[in-house]
Amino acid sequence: MVQDEPEEFSIRSWPDWSFRGEPLDGQRRRGRRAIAVVALANLSSLFLIARFVGVADGGRDPVLAGVSLGLVVCYGVGCVLAPWFGPPASHRLRIAIVAALFVLGAAPAVLLGSPDYLTDLTYAIASGLMLLPLRYSLLLGLATALAQIGWMQLAGGRVNWALVATLAAVTAALGVVFALVFTIGQLRAARAQVRRLAVDQERERVARDLHDILGHSLSTMTVKLGLTRRILESGRDPGPAMTEVVELESLCRQALSDVRATVSDYRTVSLTSEIAGARMALRAAGVRAELPATADEALPGLHGVFGYVVREAVTNVLRHSDAGRCSIRLGRDWVEIADDGTVSAEAVAGHGLTGLAERLDAVSGVLEHGRAPGGGFRVLARVPVPQSAAQPVSAAGTEPA
What's the pLDDT at 55? Predict the structure, then answer.
């Protein structure tokens, strides 16, 4: 399943803890349970026991004290479970969890009339920082501190600034910690996405290059094998057939070398060699070839991408066309391959032309293909280059219409 692109951290965004949601093996699941047990033990020792002692030794009404102790227990259990079940919950359920914790945490203070106990809401604020947008959870912490100050002032005319400072400091510190944790989690998710994109890009490169290499090589081999068979069946001198077999062996070796180089990303394409290969393949197929003598018309920096264009276009002529003539024309920043065969829907919709368009797009070029003005099929590739890179163009390299 493809994950959504990680969003940039913002105090308005809901904390996304999906980077914690990868499948867990048995050892990691046991590790999480152990962490929960340790957290529960710490909460019991630092909070529950201290609050139990404070409520029990206060000389309060036994019923109110019992209810308050029960609420304290529920509050402590809820604070432990909220980080476990809260992150994968919906936004509405997150709000409900945080609200329930605030109610459970503030109820003992209200029942016993002790504003000092509002400091216990530190744990509820921590859950809010983990589950709610930061701007809301920080406002909850500020509102709790102001409520505690006002209540203390009204109840006894004196503010216990140590308790207020504890509440404010813990809220601020946890806010920074959760913001950092959330940001680090997003960075990890982004790094994982970059790795996935790199793997996909490499897979596409290998698939595209193998298509270009094997498609052309196998098409040429098929044509030459057919020519060899016809020569042998005719009962004529087997010399030309042996020549074709030798060329086939050379083609097989070259194709194998190209495949190895493609897999290791060391393969380069030469426009000169592609024109020579096109001449040999078209001759074997009985197609009259009109090819440039050299590749000097094109800019040297474009020889690679134009070599792929020539290879794929000639492959389509061999596989999908009944052409009797094929011409290749070169210019400074363009190459055109045209034939007089019928237009093949398979050639137009194939992966080869799509791959060529991607290669040209990488160098800011464009690919045009379709029915030629005089009939047949035409492929035209253009790569705009600055005028400073211009070279003299001969009559053979006249700009196509």
Answer: 67
